[in-house]
Specification:
Length: 194
């Protein structure tokens, strides 16, 4: 199974009112767990990046001013994903996939269905209701260090998330022969017709 572990940074929490400003992803094969490719891009929003978001993510207005438009960035992302892969994001169904779906609608991009997993489902299966299921508590419980990684920058977060997913998957299914969590369905931009 090919996984696309990805993360978005946005100007806020509402897919209807806020915008994507960064997309990063790493492509991995279950069981191999070596990166098969990386993707990252800033995304040019219509509104200015709020100061609070710059403080949290480190992403400035200058970094996004000449970045690809949302439609261009999402089309590049879907080409990186390819024909068939399972997407993995932390709170993906509730956050990342909602932003992607809303942006496809907003920018008139046709969509295709995709399988996806919420990495929090791994955590809930291992630890139940204990200790929270944010990325930082999960990294702590797994003994993974974020030292030297810029948190809330999608490029750093996807690499941390990839390590966490690998470790949690291995705890649940040591031979990696089956998927330990429920697959959900989301949408991403359709691939261009060639």
């Amino acid at each position: 199974m090919t996984l696309i572990i990805f993360d978005l940074e946005t100007t806020g929490l509402s897919p209807c009112h806020n915008e994507i400003i960064q997309i990063a992803a790493v492509k991995m094969k279950v069981g191999c767990w070596e990166p098969q490719g990386h993707f990252d891009t800033f995304v040019r929003p219509q509104a200015r990046v709020p100061r609070f978001i710059t403080g949290l993510t480190g992403i400035s207005q200058a970094q996004v001013e000449r970045a690809p438009s949302p439609a261009q960035a999402l089309m590049a992302f879907t080409q990186f994903i390819g024909e068939e892969a399972t997407l993995v994001a932390h709170n993906g169904p509730g956050f990342d996939m909602r932003f992607i779906a809303e942006n496809c609608t907003r920018h008139g991009l046709p969509v295709r269905p995709t399988a996806m997993m919420d990495s929090r489902a791994f955590s809930r299966k291992i630890w139940g209701g204990r200790g929270g299921h944010g990325l930082d508590p999960i990294l702590h419980r797994l003994g993974l260090s974020a030292d030297g990684v810029k948190r809330h920058d999608a490029r750093g977060d996807v690499h941390l998330l990839a390590q966490a997913v690998r470790k949690m998957w291995g705890q649940l299914v040591p031979d990696f022969q089956s998927c330990p969590v429920e697959l959900k369905t989301g949408v991403i931009p359709a691939l261009p017709v060639v």
